[in-house]
Write a structure and sequence with these properties.
By secondary structure, this protein is mostly helical. Helices cover about 65% and strands about 5% of the residues. It has a two-stranded antiparallel sheet with strand order 1-2.
């Protein structure tokens, strides 16, 4: 538990030190610019928030991240009520989906109070090391209504709240301090995996299409 809390604290502190509005996050650069991190538009409506909740819960990046987290929990045999075989993996996957969906609803609701935009925007064209750093950073950072980066306060509230609520629906998931701390850590790890999926999947798809086109010639 202490390791999880320490890791999250270090990540949040590091993210806080890199959320200055002066960083290269300019939405008005020309469309053909390569070394530009995409930024959100000035308006993020209630409809956008609803769409974000749905896509973040049942979209491909979250489903892929769920496989990763459910696999870790199956390997750890947590919770112990489930087996370490495919049926146990399935139970853990569904439980993680429920907890994540609940957290996403809370994050969208809390964030609407002060205008947080929780969407992930790629760092396409940046060096690989910068892109990986961006993937990790944006698990803990979001944008305000002006498009400037800030700590994801709504996420910090929503993740543990969603886990606690979902645990009440699952009698086999006791909400002890140690267990919830690990679940919170895995939730942020899941967000990092999901960000990586969003960041690099378009590149892989483009590479595949290019190779396929080349082979066709």
């Amino acid at each position: 538990m202490r390791i999880v809390v320490l890791t999250l604290t270090m990540a949040i502190v590091g993210a806080a030190q890199s959320t200055s509005p002066s960083e290269n996050l300019v939405a008005t650069d020309p469309p053909n610019a390569t070394n530009v991190i995409q930024t959100p538009p000035s308006v993020f409506t209630a409809q956008d928030r609803f769409r974000w909740v749905v896509l973040t819960t049942v979209g491909p990046k979250n489903l892929a991240a769920g496989v990763f987290v459910a696999g870790i929990n199956t390997w750890r045999d947590q919770p112990e009520n489930y087996s370490t075989h495919w049926d146990g993996f399935g139970h853990r996957y569904v439980n993680r989906l429920i907890a994540g969906g609940t957290s996403h609803v809370f994050e969208a609701g809390f964030g609407s109070l002060w205008g947080e935009d929780p969407r992930y925007f790629r760092a396409a064209g940046q060096p690989l090391r910068a892109r990986i750093g961006h993937v990790v950073k944006m698990a803990f950072v979001t944008h305000n209504r002006n498009g400037d980066p800030q700590l994801a306060y709504a996420r910090y509230l929503a993740v543990p709240a969603g886990i606690l609520v979902s645990n009440t629906w699952q009698p086999d998931s006791p909400s002890t301090t140690g267990r919830v701390s690990i679940q919170v850590g895995l939730a942020f790890l899941s967000r990092i995996v999901g960000n990586a999926f969003s960041e690099f999947t378009p590149d892989l798809r483009q590479r595949f299409q290019h190779d396929r086109s080349g082979n066709g010639n």
